[in-house]
Specification:
Elements (H helix, E strand, L loop, with lengths): L1 E8 L3 H17 L3 E9 L2 E10 L10 H33 L5 H14 L11 H20 L2 E3 H8 L1 H37 L6 E6 L4 E5 L16 E2 L7 H12 L3 E6 L6 H10 L4 E3 L6 H5 L1
Parallel strand pairs: 1-4, 5-8, 8-9
Antiparallel strand pairs: 1-3, 2-3, 5-6, 6-7
């Protein structure tokens, strides 16, 4: 009885055993006699695939041992991406960003999943997933051409350094996302504080934003809101290097109205600004479904 391949691992033992067993049954139905042997050695569990006999008439084009190795390589690459990857990401975060709390690490982890396309409903269908799968599979196949045994833990650590670096890059980007989100939350809280301590200069403010990016403020009597920072003039955000969306936020915080109504043509360009204003003026912001102020904007 000849050993074809031995697979060792410290993780996902039951999954590995189940997938190996089901896969080898396909060969057995075609007349091959393959035994799957299991043994433990310290923290490692090893599975050995041993070929005990051939069918009388073998119609396979490739050597059965090569075919079995290809199957095992595909199985291992799939387990690495589908199961090990989560463990590897969490381990990278714990090692490199140990100074963050548990909740902060969870946020970083979720951002990292987005960067490696694992937050979609079907990550296996993403091009990025298939590319990583192909690279890992080719690495395993190259290794098994010269070796009859593989320890998944060591293979990942020493043979998949490029893959590990991808996960590290995703984690670094996730930390940047986390810090930006934290700064944004702190910024919102600061603006909310300013609004709370401000004496309202108007009960209601109508915000008109036209299709080219200009905005103007009106009070509850539809009269232009005049101030030193806006001058009551139409400000074109497209014709200046100044960030007039930030200026709009600042103007509204200074006026601190009890109610804000947006009149604008639906445009994703301003959705982030409007969402920020909604968070600062919690419960005070609404979007007009259509009125006489909206008509010129839509035209």
């Amino acid at each position: 009885m000849a050993q074809i391949i031995s697979i060792g691992s410290t993780q996902h033992i039951d999954l590995l055993k189940d997938k190996l067993g089901r896969g080898l049954m396909i060969f057995e139905r075609n007349g091959f006699k393959i035994n799957l042997e299991e043994r433990s050695d310290g923290k490692f569990t090893f599975f050995s695939c041993c070929l005990d006999g051939f069918p009388e008439y073998c119609q396979l084009e490739d050597d059965p041992q090569i075919i079995i190795k290809k199957y095992v390589a595909d199985l291992i690459s799939d387990i690495i991406l589908s199961h090990w990857e989560v463990f590897l990401l969490k381990n990278i975060i714990c090692e490199n960003y140990y100074y963050y709390g548990d909740e902060e690490k969870k946020i970083i982890y979720n951002y990292a999943l987005q960067h490696i396309n694992r937050k979609s409903n079907e990550p296996r269908k993403s091009v990025y997933w298939f590319n990583r799968k192909r690279r890992i599979l080719n690495k395993i196949l190259d290794y098994l051409k010269l070796n009859n045994s593989i320890i998944i833990d060591g293979f990942i650590r020493f043979r998949l350094k490029e893959y590990i670096n991808e996960l590290k890059d995703a984690t670094d980007k996730a930390v940047d996302d986390f810090l930006l989100e934290r700064e944004y939350r702190e910024f919102i809280e600061l603006l909310k504080y300013f609004v709370e301590i401000q004496e309202p200069r108007a009960y209601m403010v109508h915000v008109l934003i036209n299709n080219v990016g200009a905005f103007k403020l009106y009070d509850d009597k539809t009269q232009p809101v005049r101030s030193d920072y806006l001058g009551g003039f139409l400000v074109d955000m497209m014709d200046s290097e100044i960030n007039y969306e930030d200026m709009l936020v600042s103007a509204l915080v200074t006026i601190a109205p009890q109610k804000i109504i947006f009149h604008h043509k639906k445009n994703d360009r301003y959705s982030a600004t409007i969402e920020t204003i909604k968070k600062v003026f919690d419960g005070r912001v609404s979007e007009c479904p259509g009125c006489e102020l909206c008509t010129p904007l839509n035209n």
